[in-house]
């Protein structure tokens, strides 16, 4: 979501004829887009701003702004805490950014805009038709969240849940496809409740509409809340040819006691049954998840239930985080906080348990042939000097695994640009976070 917001910010700045520089030292304007989800992310913002003070001293006309969730949370405090800041703008102010910058340029004033009106502000969404090399794009379908998980700052910094109209979403995707995009990732904090509040179509119905768009090859989405995962969505993985075989389904904990205190509104058994159904309907589906370790009051037994869930489900991959208190959230007031050392130990143990399954899930693909949507040259290739032979490309399987491969001479596309095409790649080798393949089928 932050990557998407940064893109919208940079589109707004382009309207004012700003161009991207190669380094902060060369810039006349620096915008720091921020994340408040965990304490560590927030600390990084302040240490980064500390480093920018030197640039501002050297170049007093440099305009320095902070956007995103930390800006939304701190508002005016931020101007007081960081005296050389010119601008603080929240999560709902991106469309007003160009106007604010013009005012700062003209009047050398300082501005705070953290207004958060209800509903969708359509003017935030603009389609970039400049970047013809890109194959994939994010598309926001909803903003905000109404779930109030007890640890989470999102409802406070991104506001109430609101869905965009299906017509606007489909229109945006059509324009993206016209500009060369082949894959979209639909974004929302809880896509499964899409349209419910506004009485729009359901999320699976929206997926069916998007599946009809000519020229679009793949659809992904994130994030799904398990409590709202409907049978219709599970069947969409079987029935919609463009919907990729991957779901990110954050569970957070394997213990019912902790899930209850997190206000997640589902039980361990409910979650296990959903995963079972997903795997029955779509056997190849990749499932990933998020975990929080060291939630206040999490006992050894609770934690062991989480480890047991990981062993039972054998996820394709996971993200795991140490619990941290956030401003305004209920769990900040919960007793029985877990020590930093204990959280660290649990995180290490959890990640270690998963490591085996991530590798195993990659290894089963060795020897198989996978359709890969090619996204461009591989990272390794981009770093090396131009070499006309053995150029390495990168793309993803439908299950969202990165595949780097060197096309074979016989491949009909040889010598051409592979970007944006789905090609069959034979998987040769599994590494811990990617696969290697070739087109010798
Ligand atoms: N502490 C640690 N992790 C958190 N997350 C959200 N809030 C917190 C918090 N206070 C994690 C959850 C969520 C992911 C995006 O960030 O796992 O799914
Ligand atoms: Fe936060 Fe996700 Fe819960 Fe919403 S559903 S409150 S974004 S963790």
Show the helix and strand layout:
Layout: H1 2-15, E1 29-34, H2 39-58, E2 63-68, H3 69-74, H4 76-81, E3 87-89, H5 97-107, E4 111-113, E5 136-140, E6 142-143, H6 154-157, E7 162-163, H7 166-178, E8 183-187, H8 203-211, E9 218-222, H9 231-239, E10 246-248, H10 256-261, H11 268-281, E11 286-293, H12 300-313, E12 317-322, H13 340-363, E13 369-377, H14 379-383, E14 393-396, E15 402-406, E16 422-430, E17 435-438
The chain binds 5'-deoxyadenosine and iron/sulfur cluster (SF4).
Residues 37-38, 151-152, 250, 252, 290, 292, 321, 323-324, 326 line the site of 5'-deoxyadenosine.
Structural account:
- This protein is α/β, with parallel strands linked by helices and 441 residues long.
- It folds into 4 domains: 2-113, 3-Layer(aba) Sandwich (Rossmann fold); 118-244, Transcription Regulator spoIIAA (2-Layer Sandwich); 252-364, Transcription Regulator spoIIAA (2-Layer Sandwich), CATH 3.30.750; 369-438.
- Helix content is 35%, strand content 19%.
- It has helices spanning 2-15, 39-58, 69-74, 76-81, 97-107, 154-157, 166-178, 203-211, 231-239, 256-261, 268-281, 300-313, 340-363, 379-383; strands spanning 29-34, 63-68, 87-89, 111-113, 136-140, 142-143, 162-163, 183-187, 218-222, 246-248, 286-293, 317-322, 369-377, 393-396, 402-406, 422-430, 435-438.
- The strands form 5 sheets. The chain has a 5-stranded mixed beta barrel. It has a 4-stranded parallel sheet with strand order 1-2-3-4, sandwiched between helices. Strands 5-8-9 form a 3-stranded parallel sheet, covered by helices on one side.
- Strand 11, helix 12 (300-313) and strand 12 form a beta-alpha-beta unit.
- Helix 12 (300-313) runs parallel beside helix 13.
- The two termini are 38 Å apart.
- The mean pLDDT is 93.
- Residues 145, 147-149, 152, 154-155, 189-190, 225 line the site of iron/sulfur cluster.
- Iron/sulfur cluster binds at residues 145, 147-149, 152, 154-155, 189-190, 225.
